[in-house]
Backbone:
């Protein structure tokens, strides 16, 4: 387990036990000594607050026993935990993508259009493919060739084609046309009319909506 993973596990334990106690503090009897040492390190980073003498006295009164040590998350610790639990997963290194995924490289204007598309999650009648938003969040940029790298399933590629079709219909066909040329996936609205919820109109090798790039 890496250092940041250990830190998040301690923050998570403090959060859960503090919430269960009702007063927000995790007491000396609820963490192993090695975890208490990690808490001390997290205090130095501003993520954790160690109970002072007055706090311990109040906790002792609440618990009906002497409380010699207690800790709780600071607002920075809460936010670190919240972000850590939602952080993008690392992108697989080149050549290590799952067998059902294809490496897709998007130019900046395609990526910008895709981010707009993903940002409309919950407002669109045709939903995004599962996992596409996560792929967009975790995409890395190869600055040498100015391409954004994603590893997409076929369903996700079809969803990208739909997003780029929306971009085409509202101003620019270049991004959708380029995606169709390079990956053979083009959204065809006529094909989607029978099943719009599945983004089934993205057809591999289909003609879709023509337009100049």
Residues:
């Amino acid at each position: 387990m890496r250092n940041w993973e250990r830190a998040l596990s301690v923050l998570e334990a403090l959060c859960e036990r503090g919430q269960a106690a009702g007063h927000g503090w995790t007491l000396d009897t609820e963490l192993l000594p090695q975890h208490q040492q990690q808490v001390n390190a997290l205090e130095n980073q501003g993520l954790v607050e160690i109970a002072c003498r007055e706090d311990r006295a109040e906790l002792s009164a609440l618990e009906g026993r002497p409380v010699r040590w207690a800790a709780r998350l600071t607002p920075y610790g809460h936010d670190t935990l919240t972000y850590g639990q939602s952080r993008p997963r690392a992108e697989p290194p080149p050549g290590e993508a799952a067998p059902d995924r294809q490496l897709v490289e998007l130019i900046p204007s395609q990526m910008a259009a895709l981010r707009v598309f993903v940002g409309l999650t919950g407002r669109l009648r045709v939903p995004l493919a599962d996992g596409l938003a996560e792929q967009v969040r975790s995409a890395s940029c190869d600055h040498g060739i100015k391409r954004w790298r994603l590893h997409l399933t076929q369903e996700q590629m079809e969803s990208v084609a739909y997003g780029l079709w929306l971009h085409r219909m509202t101003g620019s066909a270049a991004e959708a046309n380029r995606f169709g040329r390079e990956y053979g996936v083009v959204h065809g609205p006529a094909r989607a009319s029978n099943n719009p919820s599945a983004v089934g109109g993205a057809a591999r090798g289909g003609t879709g909506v023509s337009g100049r790039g």
